[in-house]
Specification:
Elements: E1 11-12, E2 16-17, H1 20-30, H2 41-45, H3 54-68, E3 74-85, E4 94-106, E5 112-121, E6 127-137
Antiparallel strand pairs: 1-4, 2-4, 3-6, 4-5, 5-6
C-alpha cells in the first residue's frame, strides 16, 4: 500500500459506476421514506428515478479512498467536517475521489491525526461532494 502524497499534492482514486440497483438497494436498506428517494408509480412511468442519498455518496467515497491504497497507514476515520453536497449523484455517474492532504498533528501516543480534503468528482471532473476528513494514522516509519 502507498500513501497519498505529502505537501498538499492531490491523488485520485479509481472510479466506481453508480447504478440504479445500487441506489435502490441503499435506499431500501437505509429505510429512506422521503418522496425524492421513492418516486411513485406515475413518476417512475415518466422516467423518474431516485438519486443516491448523500449518506450513500459518503459511504462510496470512504470505500473508494480505502480501496485505493492511498492511505496505507490509516487506522480509522475519526471525523467528517464541512460536508457539502453540490450536485445530485444519479445512476450512470462515474464517481472518483480527489484526495488532498492538509494539516496534521501528532497525538500523545505518537500517532498522527491527518486532515484530508475529499472531493467526489464525476467523469468530467465536476465536483459532486466536498468534505474534510480527519484520519488517525500510524506514524511514518521512513
Amino acid at each position: 500500500m502507498t500513501d497519498a502524497p505529502s505537501g498538499g499534492e492531490t491523488a485520485v482514486t479509481p472510479a466506481v459506476e453508480v447504478t440504479q440497483p445500487l441506489i435502490d438497494g441503499l435506499v431500501g436498506l437505509g429505510g429512506y421514506t422521503h418522496p425524492l428517494f421513492n418516486p411513485g408509480l406515475d413518476e417512475r412511468a415518466g422516467g423518474a428515478r431516485a438519486p443516491m442519498p448523500g449518506q450513500g455518496v459518503l459511504l462510496l467515497m470512504g470505500g473508494l479512498v480505502e480501496r485505493s491504497g492511498l492511505l496505507g497507514r490509516a487506522i480509522a476515520l475519526i471525523e467528517l467536517r464541512e460536508v457539502r453536497f453540490l450536485k445530485m449523484v444519479t445512476a450512470g455517474t462515474s464517481l472518483r475521489v480527489r484526495l488532498t492532504p492538509g494539516p496534521s498533528r501528532e497525538t500523545g501516543s505518537g500517532k498522527l491525526v491527518q486532515e484530508y480534503r475529499w472531493v467526489a468528482v464525476d467523469a468530467a471532473g465536476e465536483a459532486m461532494v466536498e468534505a474534510t476528513a480527519l484520519m488517525l494514522m500510524r506514524p511514518d516509519d521512513g
